[in-house]
Design a protein that fits this description.
Elements lengths: L5 H10 L9 H6 L1 H4 L2 E11 L5 E12 L3 E8 L3 E6 L2 E6 L4 E6 H5 L13 H4 E9 L2 E8 L6 E9 L2 E9 L4 E11 L17 E3 L4
Parallel strand pairs: 6-12
Antiparallel strand pairs: 1-2, 1-11, 2-3, 3-4, 4-5, 5-6, 7-8, 8-9, 9-10, 10-11
Length: 209
């Protein structure tokens, strides 16, 4: 499957900002609401099937600014761009010459996108559990309270003060692991980064226009 899993993007965009200086992984995740307003960096993503066989690898860059603004760019081995201006989400596939546009709430639904809202407590939407230490990281497990969330759970790995890894398991047994690097906390990000204009000649589909 060439196109990246949209669910992965939605999840990472909401939890990646959690790297803050507190005692345990749950505290670091919750500190997202207090300490981090924007973030940018690089990522690598690996998708595994139910037997943990690699299905897909990809890498790229991302930028996030709360609330609800993100710029997620897959660069290798294919190019795809996902942009939100806080109201709409554009998904641009340059190979297909196609743009899909949706309203933000319709694109993200009841996924962990709720984590972007500073008015919604994590415990309202997830059960949080300290998952111990492995791979030189401290882990916290998030289980969605909504049975229709589209995934079984998320595990976040912290290395010192920074978020290093995210592991997501969907309802079909597929696992996606994302590793983060070169993170910049609270950079100044221009509005233009979170705006998108479809290139001339591409097909635009969706109901978010």
């Amino acid at each position: 499957m060439k196109s990246p899993l949209r669910l992965v993007v939605q999840t990472v965009l909401l939890v990646v900002l959690a790297g803050a200086a507190h005692a345990g992984p749950i505290d670091r995740l919750q500190a997202f609401y207090k300490d981090v307003r924007s973030l940018r960096g690089d990522f690598t993503q690996t998708v595994y099937d139910a037997h943990m066989k690699v299905k897909q690898r990809a890498q790229g860059t991302f930028a996030i600014r709360r609330p609800d603004r993100f710029h997620w760019a897959y660069q290798k081995p294919y190019q795809q761009l996902i942009v939100s201006d806080g109201t709409k989400v554009w998904i641009y596939d340059s190979d297909l010459q196609q743009v899909t546009v949706k309203k933000l709430d319709e694109a993200l639904g009841s996924t962990p996108a709720l984590l972007l809202s500073s008015s919604v407590a994590l415990e309202r939407n997830f059960t949080l559990v300290d998952a111990g230490t492995a791979e030189n990281q401290q882990w916290v497990a998030l289980t969605p309270r909504d049975k229709d969330a589209g995934f079984e759970g998320i595990r976040l790995g912290f290395d010192g003060k920074s978020l290093r890894s995210m592991i997501l398991k969907d309802n079909f047994g597929q696992t996606t692991r994302v590793e983060f690097s070169d993170l910049q906390r609270n950079p100044s990000l221009p509005d233009a980064l979170f705006q998108f204009a479809p290139p001339p000649g591409v097909d635009v589909i969706g109901n978010g226009q």
